[in-house]
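ESCALATION

Customer reports they have been waiting on this structure for their group meeting. Please prioritize. Original submission:
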Amino acid sequence: MIAAYAPATVSNVACGFDVLGFALDEPGDVVLVETACEPGVRIAGITGDQGRLPRDPRRNTAGAAVAALLDHLQTRTGVSLTLHKGLPLESGIGSSGASAVAAVVAVNELLGRPVGADVLLACAMAGEEAGCGAAHPDNVAPALHGGFVLARQIAPPDVVRLPVPDGLACALLHPHLSVNTGMARALLGETVPLRDAVRQWGNLGALVAALFTSDRALLARSLEDVIVEPRRAPLVPGFFAVKAAALAAGALGCSLSGSGPSMFALTSTLDNARAAGEAMQRTFAEHSDAGADLYVSLVGRAGARLVTAA
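Update from on-call: job pushed to the front of the queue and completed.
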């Protein structure tokens, strides 16, 4: 039996809609794999999903990702998967991507590491497409590689790994709300005013430069989203008050994680992340009785990795 862990991820990162993402150290998902007598993929069990995820491997992101890997290898090996969900569903922190990545990393190890990271990424994206209806590398790429990742294009996947300034940390607030990704995407429409596009391009370029130069002041100025955030903010009660609380507590920037409802705040230190996160949690409680979980972590450099099977 082989077990692999893949972490939560923050995608979009304010100004980088569909192209930018980063990994946390924790929380994350664990997938256990072992060989099975029958060819193909079987989902032996899932914990932590409250019975919501499909057990049909063709509709499960982890199962579909492993099926893509087996197809690539042209093998009739049988594989059994057990998923331990540490990430909430429809949370905007890469839950489906983490399962897909952990599954292909574990199966690749089980089979003797026949493929490299590029193939694992493509298979994880295929799993997300089968399970969720769309394949975007801005979650699966940082879950696999760790750190910050820029997805230059989707097909074929072309991802650029970016440096992580020392000490960069994240507070991640997960309200106990559910946001459907398709519905959140529909809010965006099909057109963007040219002035907004130019401003967003400038922010994204400056953010990448800030990561390379460890310029925290430039990073703070760049964490601005003038396109997506204004349309999706109403999905989270008290969004702008929570954001203001994070900034007042010293965060470099704060925005939605993925399509929401989770919100992230980037900070210069882990202690600052705790302070910003606690301020976010208190402020959200003033605007909603839904409750919210708080995760505090360094920006994760490791990404997916093998762990000891329980």
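Sent to customer with the following note: The two ends are 10 Å apart (CA to CA).
Escalation resolved.
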